[in-house]
Structures are given as C-alpha cells and as structure tokens.
Write a structure and sequence with these properties.
Blueprint: E1 15-18, E2 24-30, E3 37-41, H1 52-60, E4 64-68, H2 86-99, E5 105-109, H3 111-121, E6 132-136, H4 144-155, H5 164-174, H6 185-188, E7 191-193, E8 199-201, H7 206-209, H8 225-233, E9 239-244, H9 252-261, E10 266-270, H10 277-280, H11 282-295
Parallel strand pairs: 3-4, 3-5, 5-6, 6-9, 9-10
Antiparallel strand pairs: 1-2, 2-4, 7-8
Helix pairs in contact: 1-11, 2-3, 3-8
C-alpha cells in the first residue's frame, strides 16, 4: 500500500501559486511576461510536466504559459482533509486565474478539463475569468469503459514499481499504440522514489482511495449530467474540443452532443492519438492548439 507521508520538498525551480482553501500549487511559467496568458491543467494522475512540449511551443509563439500541478499532484500541496472533489479542483482553477495579471485561455485535459469547464461554465464574470477554453479528450459525456480502464490503471499499482522500467511496462500495457521510449527521464518526473526504493506515482494516494476519492479520475461520476449540460450550454467564449481518434473515453456521439449544446465551439480530431492526446501526437496537438489560439489572440 502506498505511503501517506507528506510529499517531498519542492524543487526550487517551480513558482508557487495560490490554490483554494489555503493550498499552494507548483507551476512552471514560460514565455514573454507581456504575452497573452495560457493556463495548462493536466489530467488526474499526471503532473505539469505532461505539458512540457506544448508549453515550449506556446512560449516560443509569444504566449505567457503557466503549467500547474493540480492539488495532490506533483509538487503541489496535498489536501490535508483529502478533498479531491471536482469542486475543489475547480476552486483551485479559479484561485489561480484570480491571481494572474490577465484572463487566460484555459487548456485542460481530462480532470483538468472538467475543472476548467465548470470554472468557465458556472462563472458569472466572463470574460474576466477566461478568454477561451480548450478541452482535451474530455466533455460532458464520457464513456464508462474509458473511465473504468483509467480507474483500473490508477488503482492497480498503488504500491508502486521496483524500477522505472517496470513502470514503463505498465504504461505500455495501458497505452500500447504509443511508441515506447528507452529514455525514462520524463517518466521519472511523474513518479517519486520512496525510502524503500520503490517508485510510486507522484500524487496523493487519497486522490483515488480517500473518503473524497474516486476511481473515475475525471470526477464526472460525482456531479451529475444536468450540471455538466448546463455548464456546456453556458459557454460564451471561444471554445475548442480536441479528441484523440482512438479515445475510449470521449466518443463521436459525445462530441456531437457537445457541439449541439455549444454550436460556436470548434473541434479537432487527432488521428493516431488516444486519451493522452498531447503525449500521443504532440506535434499534431500543438498545431491544433496554436491555430485556435492564433484565431482568438487578443489585440495588443
């Protein structure tokens, strides 16, 4: 069983940004200080490093990019009360947005996407909250087979791995269509090594097994379809929905229903990608994001 000790001391390189309920979150910031803002929010069980390639591309294109570790993930604070509900994550998104100098475009994958959708769809002060929204392989309707497969993967290795190679084996089994790499430096950023030498995922075990935990990392199972429907129908800012064509989480029918409820939204279907779109086909994903951002870039 994974240990419940406090997370390791943060690396000095990330900045600390305010979350909600007194928590602080770790973030990487890149790009020109006066550039339009983008906030990158990863999926459950990941860290801000999942956006590394995208962050570099956006920063090089003149965007001020902030990639955040969600609560209980990476080098961000763990919730002492074990509160990892979707409302807690959405409150954190709002707290980060409120601390920024200008409203960002929110780019959220999976859990980060649902938290962003609720933040924007339930906001009463748009566009002060966000200038745009990008949802990455997540929407208001998700396939149960996909959420179950993610839950099985996340709860299947709570006691960690004997080596990075063993962790890579588990990822390859979960995501067999992604080319396997022998460079585990990126993987090491999503794991931490315990005192006993085992490598465990870089998130609070209470995220999936605590009293507020869930085996559905998107947390959609805890909030009901009506609330998500209303959030989608309330969208009033530029919106892009990105789907991995091989995704078992977001179906074509789910996309169609989303676009019917938010007819102004744009859609990008990334061939060769599954649920982990940005990692599976980063170059295609980056192009879709850059094209969307270019069309909706604020004037100077």
């Amino acid at each position: 069983m994974a240990d419940r000790a406090a997370p390791e001391a943060p690396d000095p390189s990330p900045v600390r940004v305010p979350g909600s309920a007194g928590l602080t979150l770790a973030a990487d910031v890149a790009g020109p200080p006066d550039g339009p803002a983008v906030l990158l929010l990863h999926g459950g069980g990941q860290t801000r490093h999942s956006w590394a390639g995208t962050a570099r591309v956006l920063a090089a294109s003149g965007w001020r990019v902030t990639a955040v570790d969600l609560r209980g993930h990476g080098e961000s604070d763990w919730a002492a009360d074990g509160d990892y509900t979707i409302d807690a994550f959405a409150a954190d998104v709002r707290a980060v947005v409120d601390a920024m100098h200008r409203p960002p475009v929110l780019v959220g994958a999976s859990l980060g996407g649902i938290a962003s959708l609720l933040t924007v769809g339930e906001a009463t002060d748009l566009p002060a909250t966000a200038r745009g929204l990008v949802l990455v392989d997540v929407a208001h309707r998700l396939e149960r087979v996909g959420t179950q497969r993610i839950g099985t993967f996340m709860t299947g290795n709570l006691d960690g791995f004997a080596s990075l190679e063993e962790a890579a084996d588990a990822i390859a089994a979960y995501n067999p269509h992604r080319p396997r790499t022998t460079d585990h430096s990126g993987l090491a950023k999503n794991l931490r090594q315990r005192d006993d030498g085992r490598w465990v995922w870089h998130w609070d075990p209470a995220f999936v097994r605590g009293r507020f935990g869930s085996d559905d990392e998107t947390r959609t199972s805890s909030i009901g379809f009506d609330r998500l429907d209303r959030a989608v129908e309330a969208l009033a800012i530029p919106t892009l929905l990105v789907r991995g064509r091989r995704s078992d989480l977001l179906s074509e029918e789910g996309v169609a229903d989303f676009l019917a409820r938010a007819p102004h939204a744009e859609f990008a279907d990334v061939a060769g990608a599954g649920h982990m779109v940005a990692g599976d086909r980063n170059e295609i994903f980056n192009r879709a994001i850059l094209d969307f951002l270019a069309r909706h870039r604020p004037s100077a």
